[in-house]
Write a structure and sequence with these properties.
The chain is mainly α. The protein has helices at about 5-15, 25-35, 40-90, 110-115, 120-130; strands spanning about 95, 135. The chain has a two-stranded parallel sheet.
């Protein structure tokens, strides 16, 4: 297992080493030896493997994010289209047949008349409340 905190500390220790010189050579060698495990081939290969896995995971996440953004764009476009359609519906005018005209058929009985006759004033008021224009036939 990789200890990233230890690797960071070892890098900091190496950066803080004094310059080469007759008085500092032994300190430098001690620091290099103490930090050697963080710079071994095994550690570097493990770091590369972690980096590869992380980059693969990031690429998969980016792909998923792009797919979600495409879907959001599609839904926003559809929403705009439906908004236009709703405005068209709101501005339509309807024609209602005269309620009395269907009631004079010979084959109508009272139950038919109750079904097909509508209270004109109530219907007109409901349409007006809904913002629907009524056009006379």
């Amino acid at each position: 297992m990789i200890n990233l905190e230890q690797i960071k500390a070892d890098i900091a220790a190496r950066k803080a080493m004094p310059a080469w010189g007759p008085q500092t050579s032994i300190e430098r060698i001690k620091t290099i030896n103490a930090t050697l495990p963080s710079f071994s081939l095994k550690t570097v290969e493990a770091l590369v493997e972690v980096l590869d896995k992380t980059q693969s995971a990031n690429a998969a996440q980016n792909d998923h994010i792009n797919q979600q953004q495409d879907r959001i764009d599609q839904l926003e476009k559809k929403n705009a289209e439906l908004g236009k359609y709703a405005k068209e519906l709101e501005s339509r005018t309807v024609k209602l047949s005269q309620p009395i005209s269907v009631l004079h058929r010979r084959d109508f009985i009272d139950s038919h008349r109750a079904i097909y006759a509508y209270p004109e004033a109530e219907v007109n008021a409901a349409l007006a409340r809904a913002g629907i224009k009524l056009e006379a036939e």
